[in-house]
Amino acid sequence: MPRSRVLEQHIAVFGESGSGKTVMLSSFYGSEQEPQNIKKNSFNVVAENAGQGTHLHQNYLGMKNSATVPAQTRFAATSYRFLLRFKGKTENAPLKRKPFDAVRLVWHDYPGEWFEQDVSGPEEAQRRVETFRGLLGSHVALLLVDGQKLVDNAGEEERYLKSLLSNFRNSLLLLKDDLLEDDKPLVTFPRIWVIALSKADLLPDFDVHTFKELVIEKVGDDIVELRTVLGGLVESDDALSVGEDFVLISSAKFSTGAIEVAQRVGIDLILPMAAVLPFERHVRWAQAEKVSKKVASELLSGAEVIASAIGAVGGVVAALTGSKNKVAEALGGALSRLAPNLEEALKSAGTKFEAAEKAAATKQQNLAATLEGFRNDLDAGEEKAILARSVG
Question: Where is the Double-GTPase domain (predicted)?
Answer without folding.
Answer: 10-171
